Amino acid sequence: MTEDEHPSPWRLIRGELQRAVPESAWHQWLEPLSGRSTGEGTLLVEAPAELRPWVAKRYGRLLRACAGAVLGPDVHVDLVAAEERRGRHAVPRSRPGGGGPATAFNPRHTFDQFVIGDSNRLAHAAALAVAEMPGLAYNPLFICGSPGLGKTHLLHSIANYVTAYGAGATVRYTTAEAFTNHFVGAAQGGAFEPFKAAYRGVDVLLVDDVQFLQEKTRTEEEFFHTFNALHQAGAQIVLTSDRAPRDLASLELRLRERFEAGLVTDVRAPDHVTRLTILRKRVQQDGVGAIDPAALGLIAERVNDNVRTLEGALIRVVAFGSLTGRAVTAELADEVLAGLYPELRKRASAMTVADIQERTADAFGISVAELVSQSRAAAVAWPRQIAMYLARELTDQTLPAIGRAFGDRNHTTVLHAYRRTAERIASDRDAFEIVRRLTESLRGSTRPS
């Protein structure tokens, strides 16, 4: 087996860490870490020198818990600064911006890696426009949406683009929480000038989760002045929040008005096609080895709330396959999702296989008798595969039970039909629409009146 087929323990620990913290905290504090086993039950974790104190204080217990979940409860975690082992300072991962914790731009979060769909098309276009023309396109740009939908990805994409093509323009990424902590530290230590230089002396300021500025009177006041100074200097400001400015009722009116003065756009939950594309890109990006396309189709069908949960489900399925030595198939994905994410099994308990057969046969203009017959004609075989797929998705019947309802076929035939349908709807838009309409029709007919 290759490393891609059997992820390293550190990769699995990273997955646990990423699922345990908000996206912004993951990218700023935990993603820069690297780890390796040194033997004798010790995990050596290296952090950039400027991040290590904060990581040790804020995330040390979480790091030990995640390591214990993968390597066992007796593992010892040794968190060190990168230069302690190499004898030299780590290379800075952000553009100069003054005092305070350095912020790392995730190199994997670029516009090329962002999957565009109807749910995020405007936000992506606006982010790209401000990256190409900072201060001239939309200023400020305010991106809102629920957690896990790609807002932080867009901020890092802007940072990476400006760093690469901005002719020396300086960028600072921060979260509202980090801004607050930095401000409080500056107030206590009398270091206001370095603090101001850190945020007002840049060409592009990216601020994640500004909703956390609410009800922090002194921090809001400082952020108001920072915003004005940057805006008047022609610097680009990009903000994200879990809700629109008008819904930040506890934020000062003058800040809300400034947030709304530019372009406000949102990101929404991705549709099935976008979710499937995200999974494919993640598989390619991570090089996790061979995965049955039907497994990706099943994950995309089941996990539909946000990108973070979607990618977390993929990591869990791949990790389970690696740890058990099993191929990543639709059957394995179904098993893992049912065990770890039982809430994702959206099955209508009142629905029967007979309901699905009748509705599918009617949709294709054939009889139920033809649907369950031994005929292999294309006009019958494809509807039969869809019906078997829907029976697997929308009822609690086992594979053998479904097979019996389709002319005493065995469970492997049902599984084959399920995989073929999942593959086809993943690549064929018309097939996807047929299955989507049938699913909506069936679920609608079983809702309580």
Largest sheet: 5 strands, parallel
**Beta-strand percentage?**
5-15%
How are helices and strands ordered from N to C?
HHEEHEHHEHEHHEHEHEHHHHHHHHHH
User: Residue share in helices?
Assistant: 40-55%
Distance between the termini: 54 Å
Number of strands: 8
The first-level CATH class of the largest domain is given as Alpha Beta
Strands, helices and their partners?
Blueprint: H1 9-20, H2 23-30, E1 34-39, E2 42-47, H3 52-71, E3 76-81, H4 82-86, H5 121-132, E4 141-144, H6 151-165, E5 171-175, H7 176-189, H8 192-200, E6 204-208, H9 217-232, E7 236-241, H10 253-259, E8 263-266, H11 272-286, H12 293-302, H13 307-324, H14 330-340, H15 353-364, H16 368-371, H17 378-394, H18 399-405, H19 411-427, H20 429-445
Parallel strand pairs: 2-3, 4-7, 4-8, 5-6, 6-7
Antiparallel strand pairs: 1-2
Helix pairs in contact: 1-3, 1-13, 5-6, 11-12, 11-13, 12-14, 12-19, 13-14, 15-17, 17-19, 18-19, 19-20
